[in-house]
Amino acid sequence: MSKNKSSESVKVVVRCRPLNRREESNGPAGSIVKMDIRLGQVILRNPRATASEPQKTFTFDAVYDANSKQRDLYDESVRPLIDSVLAGFNGTIFAYGQTGTGKTYTMMGAWMDPEKRGVIPNAFDHIFTHISRSQSDRQYLVRASYLEIYLEEVRDLLDPNHGNARALELRENPDSGVYVRDLTSCVCKSIKEIEEVMNVGNQARAVGATDMNEHSSRSHALFLITVECSQPGPDGRKHIRVGRLNLVDLAGSERQAKTGVQGERLKEAAKINLSLSALGNVISALADGRSSHVPYRDSKLTRLLQDSLGGNAKTVMVATLGPSPQHYDETLTTLRYANRAKNIQNQPRVNEDPKDALLREFQLEIARLRAQLHHRKWRSKQKKEQVDGEDWEGDVDEETDGEEEKAVEEYVKLEEQRLEREKQDIREDQFMLADEKQRLLGEKERMMGDLRKEQEATEQLTAKYKAMESKLLVGGKNIMDHTNEQQKMLEMKRHEIAEQSSSEREIQQQMLVQDEETVELRETFTSLQQEVEAKTKKLKKLYAKLQCIKAEIQDVNDEHVRSRQELEQTQNELTRELKFKYLIIENFIPPEEKNKIMSRLNFDTEEDQWKFQPLVPAESKSSQMKKRPASAVGYKRPISQYARVAIAMGPHSRYRAENIMFLELDMTPPNTASLDRSTDSEPNQSPSLDGSPTKEGGVRKSRSWCQTPKSITSSSSNVSLAACHTATPMTAQ
Ligand code: ADP
Ligand code: MG
C-alpha cells in the first residue's frame, strides 16, 4: 500500500438479484440480464427490441449474478477496501440501484443467517478479527456513528430523541473534510457492541412501503466507522493512523409512477430523486474530467460523499439490478450510471497523525490519570514506610500495579487500626482531662475521615482510569479470536482465490481490448480480392458498431426526455404546493406581519436554509428597542385624551382599566329557579335588580362590577332588561 498521491479509479461492481415470486408469476419472459462472470460483463436484452437489434454489453470490475453469495462479493470486492481502511485510508462503499433490487440486502443482508450477512456485518467481523490478530504493540480505538438523510435533512440515528431532534449541520474542515456537527459517536470494543449500535440505528430509520418493495428505505443511510490505530514507528514514537469507513445504503432511484406513491411519499420520492440526480451530476462531472465545477453542494448526500467521489478515499460502488423485463429502463439507467462512475479518479492517501485523532487524546488522558494514581499510591506507600519505620528507597515503577494496590490497601488498614488503637488509649487514659480527651478524639476522628476520603478519591480515580483504558483495544489482547488454525488457513486460501480470480478477470479484459487492436496489424493480404473481402468484413463490423452507437444516442435522448418529464412532474407538484402556501399567506397573514417576517429572513448559504434574524440584534439593543408611545405612559396601552379626562372625572366603568383587583365581588349566588313560578308573582311588581334576594325566587340578574347600585335605572340596557322581566309574566299568562 503506497502512501503517495497516485490516483485510483472508483471500483464498480454490479449485482443482479434473482427473479422474485411476483415477477415469476408475471410470465415466462425470464431475465433480461445475462452476466459473464469471467469477463466481468453484463449483457442487457431489450424486451421490446427486435431480434436483430444488438444487445448492450457493459464491462465492470466484477459482476455478481443471481446465484452469487454474499461472501463472494465481500471477499472479492470489499475485503481489500476494509484492509485499506485498517491501514489508515478513507473508504466508502455505496449501493446504488432501483428500489427493490437488493441494496439493503447487499449492505445489511439477513443478520441471523451467516450465509446471508451483508457487507456491513461482515465488515464488523473483519475489523475486530484484524485487531485481535494484530501485534500487541498496537492500540486501537473503534468508533461508530449512524445517520440518515431524510427529506434533505441529516438526522442522527443514534440520538435517543431521534424523531424530534433538530436536523444536523454539515461543516467542512481542511483536515478531515466534510463532517456532521454534533453527531453521536459510540466507542465500540467488540462485534457485539457495534452490532448493538447498528440495531439501535436501524430501528430509527425511516422506511415505508411502496408497490415495489414492502420495506423500501425512504432515506439514505450512512454507517460510519472510524478505526484509529497507534503503532510505534521506526523513530520510536507512537504514530496514529486513522481510517474512516462509510457504508452507504442509498434510497432507491425509483420512477414515481411505478411505485404508486402519493402525498408525503411523493414528496420523499421527489427529494430522493433530487439528491440522486445531484449524485448523478457529480459523477458525470467527475467522469467527464473536463468540467471545472463539480456540483457537490447541490445536495447533502453529495457533500457527505465529497471525499469518496474524486477525493482522497478509496471507493467501491455496488450497482444493483433487477432481472425483470418490466424494469428495463431503470436497469439500463443504473448500468449507465455505473459505467460512468468507473471513470472517476480518486487520490487515496493515508491519514497519518491527524490533529483530531481521538486516540491521542485518550492516550494523553490515560497517561495523566496513571501519573495521578501513581503519585497517590506513592504517597500512601511512603507514609506506610514511615509508619513501619523502614527507609524508603524503592522505586514505584519497579513494582507491579497489583503489588502497589496491595501495599496501599495494607497501609490504609494499618493506619485505621493505629488510629483506632490511639482512640482507645485516649479513652482509657485516666489522667487526661475530659475536654482534652474530647479534643484528641475529635482530631483522630477527623484523621480517620480524611483517610477514608483519600481512599475514596483513589478508588474513583482508579475506576476512571480503568474505564478509559478499557476503551482502547490492544492488538491480540482484548478480543479473543476463537477461530482455530485450520479455519485461519481456510480464510487465507479464500482470500487468495478471490484475489486471483479478480486479477484473472482484469487480464482477460485487457486481452480482449488488445485482441481487437492487434488483429488489424497482423493482417497481410496476398491478393486484391482478399483485401477487398477483409475490408468489407471490417466495414460491416464498423457499421454494426455505428448502429450500436446510434441506438445508444437514441437511448440517451429517450432517457433525457424521461428524466426531464419527471423533473417537470416534480416541478408541477412543487408549484402546486407553493401556490397553496401563497394562498394561506395572502389570505390569512396580515401584510404588515408578512413584511415584518420577510425583512427578518436571511439566507444561510452554508446550510442552504432560510433563517430568522434575531428580533433585536444584541449589539444595538438600546437603539433598536421600540419606544413606548407617549400616549401610553403609565397606562397599559395607548389611551385617548377623552378617556383620560373621563377617568379623572370619576370612576366611570367604561374607562376604567381592567384590573380585576378593582372589581367588586358579586357575593350573591346566582339563582336559576324556573321562570314559570314568576306567574305566581303579582304582575305589577317589577323584579328587583339591585341584587337583594327576592321572595319569589325568580331569575335575578347578578350585579356586575360596572354597576353601581344607584345609577342602574338610568342605563338603557337595564331599562329594556326590566321591561323584559316585566313582560315575562304577561306572556306566561
Ligand atoms: P432495496 O434496498 O434495493 O430497495 P432490498 O434489499 O430491500 O431492496 O431487496 C428487496 C427484496 O429482494 C428483499 O426481500 C431481499 O431479500 C430480496 N433480495 C435482494 N437481493 C437478493 C439476492 N441477491 N438474493 C436473494 N434475495 C435478494
Ligand atoms: Mg433498501
The low-confidence parts are: 208-215, 256-260, 391-398, 677-733
Largest sheet: 10 strands, mixed
Shape: flat
| Nearest-integer average pLDDT | 78
User: How many DSSP-defined strands?
Assistant: 21
> Structural class given helices, strands, pairing?
alpha+beta
List the helices and strands and how they pair.
Layout (H helix, E strand, L loop, with lengths): L7 E2 L1 E6 L4 H5 L7 E4 L4 E4 L11 E4 L2 E3 L5 H17 L3 E8 L5 H5 L11 H15 L5 E12 L2 E4 L13 E4 L3 E4 L5 E2 L3 H14 L2 E2 L7 E2 L2 E13 L5 E12 L6 H4 L3 H26 L11 H5 L8 E9 L6 H14 L3 E2 L11 H31 L12 H28 L5 H38 L1 E2 L10 H38 L5 H61 L2 H10 E4 L4 E4 L8 H4 L16 H9 L66 H17 L1
Parallel strand pairs: 2-6, 2-17, 7-16, 7-17
Antiparallel strand pairs: 1-18, 3-4, 4-5, 8-9, 8-12, 8-15, 8-19, 10-11, 13-14, 15-16, 20-21
This protein binds adenosine-5'-diphosphate (ADP) and magnesium ion (MG).
